[in-house]
């Protein structure tokens, strides 16, 4: 990696020391603030009142500022249950566990939904986190069936799980960088069942993506399209980034998180190297801005007019905390970066004021700028990964104290 100048090193160390000195007070206060803010979600106040609708999962706000709810088939539906499980883990309060159980079970039928690759996004934050807490055998069975459904989208000739079925006029067999995140479900199923089919498919997809999705500097393409007859790459482009050759920020965050998670599950050093190479791109080639929250695409430099993406920052913070546990050489850099991201996301600039934005925690996320969709809004998955990062930070701090 590039050498960090003495000045930059001093700033990072000063910020880290300042954070360590105040972490107990700020942590307790932050949890109270988060708890209070989440109480403004209408679902939390009156769950039973939503029985008459299938759209019960908060995703974002409409342009007019109303709460935008989605059904269970939406790719973001698992994140609200995940937020609730995270709150139970942070506070130990049963109210969060009860709400998490309710919303989690609303997703059960998705275990048979083979229409897209998003089962990991839906089932790991909901049933996966729920199973860690409860060891509920029903959750386990649902997760295993979900993994069985997901692998039906795998093509051996291509070596990847197909991401989308839409835009068939544009792509024959699209695979997106986001799809790495869904592999966690397969690795989980492999460990729980001992069936190597889950491992082999996840491992093959990870290595095919590593081969075809990355440029020489380890920035990532968003979409790689394959020829389903030959398995060859047809094109490399974007759907949510600024340009085909640019680096979509959340895509880089998925790559960082994805290969860190894959190393955790496989202990294959090739994946740790890949994760660290992606980290190097984010930190030393693309470079994070002063407040550590990127614009929606790393290739953009207009910080006055282009929107930020707090969701990308939250995903990166969580990934950097985990990656720090596997890297002896860059451990401190990763922890300090993650701490600085969380400090920014917890500030008034990015954290919603009391009661604002219907109870979402973070503002200033960007869903899809090219599609003029969900720009500079709260997003439920930003909140989920923010809370996951906070949990990982807490664990690291406790280990340091002990």
> N-to-C terminal Cα separation, in Å?
31 Å
Helix count, DSSP H or I runs of 4 or more residues: 13
**What is the overall silhouette?**
globular
Which whole number gives the mean pLDDT?
91
Instruction: List SSEs in N-to-C order.
Output: HHEEHHHHEEEHHEEHHHHEEH
Mind telling me the C-alpha Rg? Answer: 20 Å
Count of distinct structural domains: 1
Q: Please describe the biggest sheet, giving its number of strands, its sense, and whether it closes into a barrel.
A: 3 strands, antiparallel
- Strands side by side in the biggest sheet: 5-6-7
CATH architecture descriptor name:
Alpha/alpha barrel
Unreliable stretches: 1-25
Oligomer: single chain
Counting helices, strands and paired strands, the structural category is: mainly alpha
Determine and state the CATH class. Mainly Alpha
| Number of beta strands | 9
């Amino acid at each position: 990696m590039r050498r960090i100048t003495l000045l930059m090193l001093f700033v990072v160390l000063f910020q880290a020391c300042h954070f360590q000195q105040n972490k107990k007070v700020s942590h307790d206060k932050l949890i109270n603030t988060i708890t209070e803010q989440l109480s403004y979600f209408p679902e939390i106040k009156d769950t039973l009142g939503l029985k008459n609708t299938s759209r019960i999962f908060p995703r974002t706000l409409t342009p007019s500022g109303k709460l935008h709810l989605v059904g269970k088939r939406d790719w973001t539906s698992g994140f609200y249950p995940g937020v609730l499980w995270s709150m139970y883990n942070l506070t130990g309060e049963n109210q969060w566990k009860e709400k998490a159980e309710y919303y989690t079970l609303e997703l059960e039928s998705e275990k048979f939904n083979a229409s897209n690759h998003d089962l990991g996004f839906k089932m790991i934050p909901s049933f996966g986190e729920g199973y860690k807490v409860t060891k509920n055998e029903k959750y386990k069975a649902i997760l295993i069936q979900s993994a069985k459904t997901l692998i039906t989208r795998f093509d051996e000739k291509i070596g990847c799980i197909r991401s989308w079925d839409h835009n068939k006029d544009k792509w024959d067999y699209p695979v997106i960088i986001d799809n790495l995140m869904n592999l966690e479900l397969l690795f989980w199923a492999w460990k729980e069942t001992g069936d190597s089919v889950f491992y082999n498919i996840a491992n093959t997809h990870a290595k095919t993506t590593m081969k075809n999705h990355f440029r020489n500097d380890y920035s990532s393409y968003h979409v790689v399209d394959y020829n389903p007859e030959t398995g060859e790459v047809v094109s490399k482009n974007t759907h949510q980034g600024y340009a085909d050759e640019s680096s979509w920020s959340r895509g880089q965050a998925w790559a960082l998180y994805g290969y860190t998670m894959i190393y955790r599950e496989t202990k294959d050093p090739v994946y740790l190297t890949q994760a660290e190479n992606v980290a190097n791109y984010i930190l030393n080639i693309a470079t994070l801005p002063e407040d550590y929250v990127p614009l929606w695409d790393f290739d953009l430099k207009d910080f006055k007019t282009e929107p930020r993406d707090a969701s990308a920052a939250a995903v990166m913070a969580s990934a950097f905390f985990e990656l720090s546990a596997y890297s002896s050489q860059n451990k401190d850099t990763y922890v300090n970066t993650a701490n600085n991201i969380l400090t920014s996301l917890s500030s008034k600039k990015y954290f919603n004021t009391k009661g604002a934005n219907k109870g979402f925690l973070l503002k200033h996320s960007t869903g899809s700028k090219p599609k003029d969709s969900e720009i500079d809004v709260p997003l439920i998955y930003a909140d989920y990964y923010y809370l996951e990062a906070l949990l990982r930070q807490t664990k690291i701090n406790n280990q340091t104290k002990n």
